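We store amino acids, tokens; thus:
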Amino acid sequence: MERQHSSRSLCSNLFFLSLLISSNLLTFYLFSSSSSSATSESTTSCPPYSITAANNEPPPTATGATTDLAPEFLEFASPHPFPFGKNPNSGEDHLYSPAGHPCTLFPDHLNRFMSYTVNGSCPDDELIAQRLLLKGCEPLPRRRCRAAAPNDYVEPYPLPVSLWSTPSDHSLVWTAYACKNYSCLINRKYQKSFDDCKDCFDLAGREKARWTSSESRGLDFSIDEVLATSKPGSIRIGLDIGGGVGSFAVRMRERNVTIVTTSMNLNGPFNNFIASRGVVPMYLSISQRLPFFDNTLDIVHSMHILSNWIPTKVLHFLLFDVYRVLRPGGLFWLDHFFCVGEQLEEEYRPVIESVGFKKAKWVVGRKLDRGPERKEMYLSALLEKPLKNSW
């Protein structure tokens, strides 16, 4: 009787054990299936950014179609394994070369830019490169070819002569521009055609007097006036956004301040001209994040380029980027910001004030050269980043 009871107990235990094992196996199977399904669904709905899709089809273009991308672009943008395995700094075992996401949205321009003979000469295609930049293809992909240069290149003048001298016509390649020499650029201020910074290349004209005195109903701040708002020697390095031919950087250099100037080549060799003067150009559009670390610059200046032609939300992002790169106590000189009618009070003042700058100067004036009926306005402001966070 006792043996029979023991046998029944053993059978019962074995039954429950087998049931428990079966249940666990079923749970494991269901969990594995759901995890696999979720992973697959996640990968399908939110794939990581790559040059080619999972099925090796090219990415969609701006119109939704697909296209083949130049092999050299795919070669550049594909991940490349590190020679010694995982890199301790990045934590990755591959190097990913950056190219602006919108590059692939304009495949015709991109393929023209990335079609060349490796180890040979680059095509003379400055206009294509600039169009890609202005379409948001920043940074441009690197290329494995030699950039075009003039065959009879003439070196720039030595410092300090170079600061206010027009360089030789043989210092650059002119094919991208309507003018083919500096005399044409200097004289285009007398022409009726529209050009960006039309009289900038005339260093003996209005350019020579910029930022040297305060005038024009208080809208024109002088450099010495601005520097006087800070401790002597505390303004040492900075940035000029959209700085034309670099005259602001030259004036600041004369006062032992180093300024980097961003500029595009809009129908003129602005970057070449800036460099020939002995100051530093940066080929950069206003849409790209400023390539400086947080809290590092003493001053950021911009004249005319920051105005109402920029979408307001883009401007808001840009102003916060300026705030980011300025050190505490650094200065933002917003020079002749242009707007019309009630835009300043209704739209731009709230946007500028929301960033958190302190106002050292704030001058508003009418722009009357094209007639008062246009209701055009200028704002010149000197704004300071607080020493402590404003929140």
Observations:
- Residues 2-45 form the longest helix (44 residues).
- Confidence is low (pLDDT under 50) at residues 1-66.
- The first strand starts at residue 80 and ends at 81.
- Residues 53 and 86 are 25 Å apart (CA to CA).
